[in-house]
């Protein structure tokens, strides 16, 4: 739906000539301000550019029905609002003389994304608030977009047509031009239309205030283009307009007509089919449009880099003014942002609801259109931040830089360097130290004393009627300075962010240096003469520029010390917020003079510390020195205590007065201990901490400061009730808890249940006749099953007369068991074994010889699996059990509670068992993921992104799912036969897996891309695999019956070697404990056969037959002589062992276990899965003994097991940062890494290197 706003004056936008309605705008619920007739919603949704003129601060399918947000809009000409608009526009366009007569303010407040029935409830719960302001004068127009400090909650909405997610768009679109036979689309500009750039809108800015963006959208003095192709001004970082070459749909003449504008108009509902009349404003001819961001002679710049967290989504050209002014400030750190233009609601911006924005040492005063803060007597500042007059100040911060020195082509890069400054306020003297500056750079930075000089400006001695930087800004501002060394034209950029006073009472600063400086030789000294600098103030912006010199004296050489002078130019812009409601907050003079003397610079090579010191005073312009006051308070010759303020009197008279929090005569001042003198000053819920000149109240644990900043109240913590289990949803078997932000959540019944989520009842599907008439229906909780009646076959939904068709296994079984034409079947004939569903059992055994082997789904023997008599190899079934007929459980993860868990894989599901210390909390074990048609074997956990990965051998694939909730995604589905073991390098973001059918080990990125085969030789039955990310090692087992082994290599596949091969049977499971550096495994070794090699395998059945009728038997084995040779059949033991891979010794942890398959470790415990017991068994490796076991409710084979750690182990490898500098796969090695290309990289630009 849309509402109309009739303006008091013409708004010049896009150079459109409004012939019929020059003062009419349409406000659309979908985040658009239309400047020409808008189409009906169905015609334009999901399209950009629009086929009508539109300004879009956040264009998407937005919903305002049912109270889901409101849209407010009005035209405002009040002085405070006009001034606020001018302040923002001049911050981005500092040379503009813009004076608007009115502004249009449109606010979309808590609007929801459109969501159709049955769509994601989590998305439906999200809300966005944003604002657009249009300001126009006789000659130009501007748009200001504002986004809240906590950002936007959603970036896309569902399409009504195909239910796809359509990203939102921020941008501008000119109306299309109708040429009767065809339509020429208008020019357009996209500011942001991807989640990454939309997510950066509130973090970045093109005018120095996070979340605020300004654009020029119209002007009468813009040069017309000489061609149809739009071009941009010469700003290398900026995008250009694009011309649409395809034809969008013809606009539908449909909108709403209202007769009177509203000061505030609420749009309560969506209007998709409203038919009313509207007089169409005629767009200009195509040549009448000219982007304000282009000239007629420049060429389009190259495409800008993709935005990141450090780059705004768009750096728009501020205006056509000389580049050296450098007025655009990129904000990178946290800055307070909000809906700064009030919209017409009942909330009035007054002291009553904004007192917390003022300092505790300030008073708040209401004005007709807002409020302002001002420091109380004895304190100085802007009201938001106040410090005691005369008290010394401390400034702390960080410095980072990337600086080229002289002709060196390699920059010197440093980060996280400390900056500390101490200011004697009543002398205006600032001491600044920057630590850990390398010697190759330290001397060359000596001339840059103004890095700390800005702190001197903040606390400069104020002459009467003038204000220093802190009195104006309160220590909250951004500064961008450009230094040009005139002899060599080298430039250095300084960006500084001052964030006010922290919780320790210190000012905070972040500094960034980038550019090039002349080289100053090691051991040189630098001298800077006193200088003056003019500071020009306008609304929220202060600028200054000056040219001065420094003198370098180099170390003595040949009895002389070379000396030379270098001129350099300083230009700086300081941006800050000021209260516009109280004119007394503005400096008396728009131009002030900063005088700097007693300048001292030093670089200490032993400590690598750079030191600056200088004295500062602020006063009138005084080029000749006449008229300047020589009062000792201004010259610093007063002799007052450092904790006192100097009060100037007549002529050269003055008095010294101790600062607030001190007592004395002013020449000597002592700290007052407020905590002792006022024991109850902090209240009963806080401790009092005395500090020089003040005291600090510290709330007790469980309390926090209330809005007044003084009273401690109980903490109301945000609780995710879905995680803590404190919600009131029905039990997890019937309902889901969906977290919706804050402490809120939504309850929703699971499929197969009916209710409000708090109480869900089972739906009896059998009452709905869901099964075939010739089938029985069995209702189950949340589902049902259908089974054909006797004499019928089918799946229960379709039943036909007749018996079920026999499987291949059943037919072969009947064939071998039947009597042939010559009589009964021969003795010793092999008969295949089938399961209850007619599938081949994965383990087949010869009943006469006792030999066993593994088979695939077609009954074919798998190479390397045949074992000796009485030994059953650990074969894995490749056929998934039949899925229960009826609605299946949704394949979705259940949110994992906090803490460390065991993840265990069973056929069709993954369960989790919480750990408390080293012990299993068995009563809290639950299903984590249902995949009923899969056979899950290996399982791995990504502690960084909280994802679970698993292998499936039924339909061979590798999949993953987020433990925060969500459906599983198959990341690898091709060129797999039997993927079993899986391991993950959470630092390098790669996965490794074994395939026992293809006999190979592969690696890929965690998203399944960039696959590469590591090994495909000397492997027979590779199964378990584990990674040691911090050391760059890989370990795996191969249970080849002829030569079982445990191997290792680096993660890049180099340095492959055998770790264990002797006294090994069927090494199934493997785990590596990062903290103890132990490699542990379970060996399913059950028997060994020792005999002379002359004994042929063909006679073994007869040997076994002999013992079947013999009385010879021994506890440890069976012995027999055959043709004077000794044959030993040894029973053996199944055991758990560990070793340090860097040493040769092995340690047996436990023997006599039953049928182990997989193993993991946590703390002092080892946990293995046992096929005989259908259980997870815990073993204390320090005792060693079994100390606990857990049997899941579903009694089936348990396959893989892993530990889901609450936090990743501390450490790194060379692939953990920037992918190790590799173009594709980065594979860690001990102390290094290798860059490798994926297989089949035809046409891919990939570089391999070590």
Automatic annotation (TrEMBL):
Entry's localization field: Secreted, Extracellular space, Extracellular matrix, Basement membrane
Cystine crosslinks: 845-852
MF terms (GO), sorted A to Z: calcium ion binding; collagen binding; laminin-1 binding; proteoglycan binding
Spans of repeat LDL-receptor class B: 946-988, 989-1031, 1032-1076
Domain EGF-like: start-end pairs: 629-670, 671-713, 762-798
Gene3D superfamilies: Green fluorescent protein, Laminin, Thyroglobulin type-1, TolB, C-terminal domain
Keywords for the protein's UniProt record, in alphabetical order: Basement membrane, Calcium, Cell adhesion, Disulfide bond, EGF-like domain, Extracellular matrix, Glycoprotein, Repeat, Secreted, Signal, Sulfation
Region span, Disordered: 267-323
Domain (Thyroglobulin type-1) ranges: 806-875
Example of a GO biological process term: glomerular basement membrane development
Principal cellular location given in the protein's record: secreted
PANTHER family linked: NIDOGEN-1, VITELLOGENIN RECEPTOR-LIKE PROTEIN-RELATED-RELATED
Name by which UniProt lists this protein: Nidogen-1
């Amino acid at each position: 739906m849309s509402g109309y706003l009739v303006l008091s004056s013409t708004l010049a936008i896009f150079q459109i000539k409004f012939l019929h309605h020059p003062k009419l705008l349409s406000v659309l619920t979908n985040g658009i301000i239309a400047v020409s007739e808008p189409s009906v919603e169905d015609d334009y949704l999901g399209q950009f550019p629009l086929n009508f003129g539109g300004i879009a601060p956040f264009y998407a399918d937005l919903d305002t029905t049912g109270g889901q947000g409101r849209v407010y809009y009005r035209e405002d000409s009040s002085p405070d609002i006009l001034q606020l608009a001018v302040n923002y526009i001049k911050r981005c366009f500092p040379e503009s003389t813009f004076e608007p007569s009115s502004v249009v303010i449109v606010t979309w407040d808590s609007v929801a994304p459109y969501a159709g029935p049955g769509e994601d409830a989590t998305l439906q719960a999200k809300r966005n608030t944003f604002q657009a302001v249009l300001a126009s004068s006789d000659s130009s127009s501007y748009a200001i977009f504002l986004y809240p400090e906590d950002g936007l909650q959603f970036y896309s909405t569902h399409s009504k047509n195909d239910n796809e997610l359509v990203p939102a768009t921020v941008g501008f679109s000119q109306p299309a031009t109708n040429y009767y036979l065809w339509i020429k689309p208008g020019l357009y500009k996209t500011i942001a239309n991807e989640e990454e750039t939309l997510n950066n809108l509130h973090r970045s800015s093109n005018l120095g205030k996070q979340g605020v963006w300004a654009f020029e959208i119209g002007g009468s003095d813009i040069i017309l283009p000489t061609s149809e192709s739009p071009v941009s001004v010469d700003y290398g970082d900026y995008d250009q307009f694009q011309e649409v070459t395809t034809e969008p749909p013809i606009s539908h003449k449909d909108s709403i007509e209202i007769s009177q504008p509203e000061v505030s108009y609420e749009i309560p509902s969506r209007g998709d089919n409203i038919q009313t009349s509207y007089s169409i404003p005629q767009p200009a001819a195509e040549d009448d449009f000219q982007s304000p961001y282009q000239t007629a002679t420049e060429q389009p710049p190259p495409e800008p880099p993709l935005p990141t967290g450090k780059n705004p989504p768009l750096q728009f050209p501020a205006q056509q003014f000389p580049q050296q002014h450098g007025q655009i400030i990129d904000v990178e750190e946290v800055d307070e942002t909000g809906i700064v233009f009030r919209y017409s609601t009942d909330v009035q911006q007054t002291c009553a609801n904004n007192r917390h924005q003022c300092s505790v040492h300030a008073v708040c005063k209401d004005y007709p259109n807002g409020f302002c803060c001002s420091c109380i007597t004895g304190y100085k500042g802007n009201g938001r931040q106040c410090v005691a007059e005369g008290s010394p100040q401390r400034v702390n911060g960080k410095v980072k830089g990337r600086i080229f020195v002289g002709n060196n082509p390699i920059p010197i890069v440093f980060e996280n360097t400390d900056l500390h400054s101490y200011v004697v306020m009543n002398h205006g003297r600032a001491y600044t130290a920057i630590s850990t500056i390398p010697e190759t750079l330290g001397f060359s930075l000596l001339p840059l004393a103004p890095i700390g000089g800005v702190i001197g400006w903040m606390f400069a001695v104020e002459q009467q009627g003038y204000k220093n930087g802190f009195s104006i800004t309160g220590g909250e501002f951004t500064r961008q300075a450009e230094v040009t060394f005139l002899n060599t034209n080298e430039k250095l950029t300084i960006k500084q962010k001052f964030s006010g006073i922290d919780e320790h009472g210190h000012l905070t600063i972040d500094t960034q240096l980038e550019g090039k400086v002349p080289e100053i030789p090691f051991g040189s000294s630098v001298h800077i003469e006193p200088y003056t600098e003019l500071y020009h103030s306008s609304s929220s912006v202060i600028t200054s520029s000056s040219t001065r010199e420094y003198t370098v004296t180099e170390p003595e050489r040949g009895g002389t010390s070379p000396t030379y002078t270098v001129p350099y130019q300083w230009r700086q812009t300081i941006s800050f917020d000021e209260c516009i409601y109280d004119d007394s907050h503005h400096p008396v003079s728009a131009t002030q003079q900063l005088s700097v003397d007693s300048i001292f610079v030093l670089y200490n090579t032993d400590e690598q510390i750079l030191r600056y010191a200088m004295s500062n005073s602020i006063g009138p312009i005084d080029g000749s020195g006449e008229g300047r006051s020589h009062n000792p308070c201004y010259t610093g010759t007063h002799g007052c205590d450092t904790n006192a303020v100097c009060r100037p009197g007549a002529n050269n008279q003055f008095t010294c007065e101790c600062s607030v929090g001190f007592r004395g005569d002013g020449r000597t001042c002592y700290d007052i201990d407020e905590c002792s003198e006022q024991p109850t000053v902090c209240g009963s819920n806080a401790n009092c901490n005395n500090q020089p000149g003040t005291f600090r109240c510290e709330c007790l644990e469980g309390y926090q400061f209330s809005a007044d900043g003084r009273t401690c109240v109980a903490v109301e913590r945000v609780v995710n009730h879905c995680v803590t289990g404190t919600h009131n949803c029905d039990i997890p078997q019937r309902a889901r808890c969906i977290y919706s932000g804050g402490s809120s959540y939504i309850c929703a019944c699971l499929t197969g249940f009916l209710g409000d989520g708090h109480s869900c009842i089972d739906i009896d599907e059998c009452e709905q006749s869901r099964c075939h008439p010739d089938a029985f229906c069995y209702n189950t909780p949340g589902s049902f099953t259908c089974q054909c009646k006797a004499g019928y076959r089918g799946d229960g939904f379709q039943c036909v007369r007749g018996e079920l068709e026999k499987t291949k296994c059943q037919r072969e079984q009947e064939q071998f068991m039947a009597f042939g034409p010559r009589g009964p079947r021969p003795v010793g004939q092999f008969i295949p074994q089938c399961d209850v569903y007619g599938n081949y059992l994965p383990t087949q055994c010869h009943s006469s010889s006792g030999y066993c082997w593994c088979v695939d789904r077609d009954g074919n023997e798998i190479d390397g699996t045949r074992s000796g008599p009485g030994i059953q190899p650990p074969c894995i079934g490749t056929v998934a059990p039949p899925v229960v007929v009826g609605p299946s459980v949704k394949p979705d993860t259940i949110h994992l509670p906090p803490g460390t868990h065991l993840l265990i894989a069973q056929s069709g599901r993954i369960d989790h068992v919480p750990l408390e210390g080293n012990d299993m909390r068995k009563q809290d074990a639950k299903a984590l993921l249902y995949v009923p048609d899969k056979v899950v074997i290996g399982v791995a956990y990504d502690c960084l992104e909280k994802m679970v990965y698993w292998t499936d051998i039924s339909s061979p694939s590798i999949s993953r799912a987020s433990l925060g909730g969500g459906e599983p995604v198959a990341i690898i589905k091709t060129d797999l036969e039997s993927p079993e073991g899986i391991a993950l390098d959470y630092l390098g973001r790669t996965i490794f897996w074994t395939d026992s059918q293809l006999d190979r080990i592969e690696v890929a990125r965690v998203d399944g891309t960039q696959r590469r085969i590591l090994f495909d030789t000397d492997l027979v039955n590779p199964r378990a695999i584990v990674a040691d990310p911090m050391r760059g090692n890989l370990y795996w087992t191969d249970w080849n019956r002829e030569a079982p082994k445990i191997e290792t290599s680096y993660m890049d596949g180099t340095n492959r070697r055998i770790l264990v091969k002797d006294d090994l049977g069927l090494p199934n499971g493997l785990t590596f404990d990062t903290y103890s550096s132990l490699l542990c495994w379970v060996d399913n070794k059950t028997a060994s056969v020792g005999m002379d090699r002359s004994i042929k395998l063909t006679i073994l059945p007869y040997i076994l037959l002999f013992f079947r009728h013999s009385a010879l038997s021994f506890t440890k084995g069976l012995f027999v002589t055959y043709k004077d040779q000794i044959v030993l059949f040894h029973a053996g033991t199944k055991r758990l062992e560990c070793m340090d891979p860097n040493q040769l010794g092995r340690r047996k942890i436990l023997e006599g276990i039953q049928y182990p398959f997989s193993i993991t470790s946590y703390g002092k415990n080892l946990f293995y899965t046992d096929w005989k017991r259908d259980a997870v068994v815990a073993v204390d490796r320090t005792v060693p003994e079994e100390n606990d076991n857990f049997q899941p409710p579903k009694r089936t084979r348990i396959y893989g097991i892993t530990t889901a750690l609450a936090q990743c182990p501390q450490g790194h490898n060379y692939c953990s940062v920037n992918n190790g500098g590799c173009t594709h796969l980065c594979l860690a090695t001990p102390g290094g890494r290798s860059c490798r290309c994926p297989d089949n990289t035809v046409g891919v630009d990939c570089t391999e290197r070590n």
